[in-house]
Fold this sequence. Notes:
There is one protein chain. A hairpin with a 3-residue loop joins strand 6 (238-239) and strand 7 (243-244). Helix 1 (2-77) runs parallel beside helix 8 and helix 11 (514-532) packs antiparallel against helix 12 (588-599). This protein has 4 domains: 80-223, Beta-Lactamase (2-Layer Sandwich); 235-332, Beta-Lactamase (2-Layer Sandwich); 352-435; 470-628, Histidine kinase-like ATPase, C-terminal domain (Heat Shock Protein 90), CATH 3.30.565. It is an alpha+beta fold. The strands form 5 sheets. The chain has a 5-stranded antiparallel sheet with strand order 2-1-5-4-3, sandwiched between helices. It has 12 helices and 19 strands. Its main location: membrane. GO terms for molecular function: ATP binding; phosphorelay sensor kinase activity. It is found in: Cell membrane. Its EC number is 2.7.13.3.
Amino acid sequence: MPVNYKNEKILTNIIRYSLPLLTIVLSLIITLLLYLENKTTFEKEKEVLSRSFIKKNKKLIHEEVQRVHKYISFMKESTEEELKESIKSRVYEAHNIATQIYNEYKDKKTKEEIFEIIKQTLGSIIFNEGRGYYFIDDKDGVKRLQSLNRQYEGKDLSNFEDANGYKFVKTIIQTIKNKSERFDTYYWYKPHEEKAYKKISFYKYFEPYDVVIGSGEYVKDFEEKVKKRVLEYVNLIRYADYGYIFIIDYDFTYLSHIRKDYIGKNVDEIKDAENKRRVLKDLKIMASNGEGYYSYVQDEKPNTKLPTKKISFVKGLNGWDWIIGTGFYQDDMEQSLRNKQKELNEKFFSYITNVIIFAIILTFLFLFISIYISKLLEEKFKSYKKEIENQQNILAQQSKMASMGEMIANIAHQWRQPLSIISTAATGISFQKELNSLSDKEFFEATAKINESAQYLSKTIDDFKNFFSPTKKEVEADIKHLFDKTFKLLDAQFKTKNIQVIKNIPQVKFKTLENEFLQVLINILNNARDELIKYDQDRYIFIDVVKEKENLIIEILDNAKGIEDKYLSKVFEPYFTTKEKSIGTGIGLYMSHEIISKHLNGTLSVQNVEYKYKNQTFKGAKFIINIPIY
Length: 630
């Protein structure tokens, strides 16, 4: 009887718990298999995505560079044709002007008088940023008009030779004899340069005086104009999210780049120059040999400012010695991979959710079935026990009660584990369903950056607003603080023009009209900047401030080769300027002199000085402001 009862208990437990346990085990196995399948699928997707990403982006950057290279090559190859059209158009314009003047006065004035009017009219026309002018030659090779070189007028230049020995004036004489027009090419010297440059001219016969009217332009000057136009266009090119075209010359000077502070700078002037120079050397070799792909680590990605692996495609432009290129960042692929992983994980969790729900349903179903079966068995055993009840009534009853208590305790104990598993699984599903991909940290970092930029813009706006606020009230100011405010307004311009400012400015307090004094400093510094950018050299501005007794002396010195001696006494006159009309009005230094002398009771003067700095000899203009402190 004890053996039979033991078997009964074992059989009941097997019936009651085997199916639920089997369901849970199968669910765990299915979950594990799905996880492994998800991981394998992701690795395959990652490999395919990586190959596809690199292939697609290599094709994209190749097409972008080829397109830009084709455009620049077209502009380069059409430079001389465009130059010829420009010169020819100018000469035709001058010819029409001369014809109109002649026709208007031929019955009113002598031919000599009319010719003088034509000379004065054409001689006053200057174009191409001060380089372009008209000339008139007669059949004897005598220069009748030379706007920018009056010393040649009236001289016989028939035997003039260019740098290669070509007597181009003979060609002009032949054009007059043929009563025709033509282009001519020769090599001539620019002002203040020893090297001869290719120059294209156009001559057109003017019958009333048996002369030619002509004009010319250096190919290099026109080519520089074309280069500038090309670079302005390239600087605007953007594609994809952060794609841009960079252009670097063979001397490693940045001509086009997404970072505006790089443009015009040589690699040696930029942070991490040693690493950049190594990369650029490789790119130069690749570009000079044609084209190619190059993989390297860029020290700062534009939108993250972090070192990032990059693949670039470069192509060389012969003749201009340019490296044209663009590239893509491999970390952009990581975002695509994260999106793909997220998609696979969502599928995986969907599968797991369905498996667990199905397992829970099966578990409850099997528990219900097992309990039902166990109850049937109990009824059978009860019937069997009643048959022997008369023989062992007390013993059977005690045994039955003990078995019942033991069974209930065992059931309670055995349920604890599967119920715990079900509860844990349900809680985990709810938790994962509530997950949010955007963390608080990411959100607050983003809002902090926006707030920081807004504060900076606001501060910049305040700086400019304060400068332009009109005031005639004297205030106590600090000269160092005034220079700081000045450079807040000018700093960006000076940096882009590679102008270094060496300051020796102590703190000195004095009473002044602050905004008017700022205007003087800005005028003088802007004037120095405009002169410095004319020269391709190291650009310096030195500022020295000295307090002498009751006076404050401010010296501002540049290395822009100074002011011509004949202009020194005129620089403070109204409307006097040595700049082109499109650049200067001649009013800035005049107003500065008026403010210092009449409003601040001081003096403003200028002189040319020679000095040494870093073992180099420079010449420049020194502006001296002397104002009373009290």
